[in-house]
Amino acid sequence: MDYVLNTDGITKTYGNHTVVDHVDMHVKKGDIYGFIGKNGAGKTTFMRIVAGLAAPASGNMELFGSRELEKQRQRIGTLIEHPGLYGSMTAKENLQVARKSYGITRKSSVEEMLEFVGLTQAGKKKVKNFSLGMKQRLGIAIALFRNPDFLILDEPINGLDPQGIKEMRDLLLKLNEERQITILISSHILGELSKIATRYGIIKEGALIEEFASEELKSRCRRCVKLVVDDTERASVILEETCRITSYDVPEPGILRVFDGLHNSWEINRELIQGGVHLKESYLAGQDLEGYFMDLLGGASND
């Protein structure tokens, strides 16, 4: 399996405070990896370590399967914290500065990049008068100048209005699908993140507590009747043969999740009891994505 980023025990401390705590992250080639955590959980610090803007106290890292990190970081584009833009210049002038600093001689690349991120209409407007969404897109344009294979974005949609969020979402999908760029993105707007992410990592108090694919997240959040029984095998037979239900699973011994017949759950309970199953609990379960994440993180975010 091809990993763009693979870390082993990455740790960062400031004095006696551990900001990043033995993080093992695995970002596959082609992922849009949603990095989720409260303010102060260590997201930005970890991203800075990956980008080479901060040094870890311990741990190892591979980029594109290699430990030659400085060389491989040339294949990374970053937008961490605030984009470094010249407010008194236009978008085009900012990109011309970036082009020269990267040693790119092809002048047409500036116009091409403006068109790609949707800023051709900005004209002579100064960046200091841009909306936040326009500034974020310009920051991404600069990050893209070296044609990166991996893009690291720290809260690129935070503070955007609905139109700006949609434009950013469309741009990120375009980068991933058309340019085959792998993306590591942090965001507090979980509903929007769920529209693009293919994989998630949850960080809490500096530690990465879970990683899972988007398909698994949908399954975890799916509405169901959760049954706690003494005999899982017998309950399964009754569900299939008596209740004619096949859409269920057994996540662990003694637990069944039934995804059909939610409005008639009392009938399921009756058949199980009449069939000799000791039904200890029966209740509706499942929640929206934001509720699921907040449960993992331990309550509302600090934003």
Describe it.
This protein is of the alpha/beta class. It has two domains: 3-213, P-loop containing nucleotide triphosphate hydrolases (Rossmann fold), CATH 3.40.50; 223-285, Alpha-Beta Plaits (2-Layer Sandwich). Helix content is 34%, strand content 27%. The chain is built from eleven helices and 14 strands. The strands form three sheets. Strands 6-7-8-4-9-10 form a six-stranded mixed beta sheet, with helices on both faces. Strands 1, 2, 3 and 5 form a four-stranded antiparallel beta sheet that branches. A four-stranded antiparallel beta sheet has the order 12-13-11-14, with helices on one face. Helix 6 links the parallel strand 7 (150-154) and strand 8. Helix 3 crosses helix 4 (108-116) and helix 5 packs parallel to helix 6. The protein is elongated. The two termini are 36 Å apart. The model has no long low-confidence stretch (mean pLDDT 90).
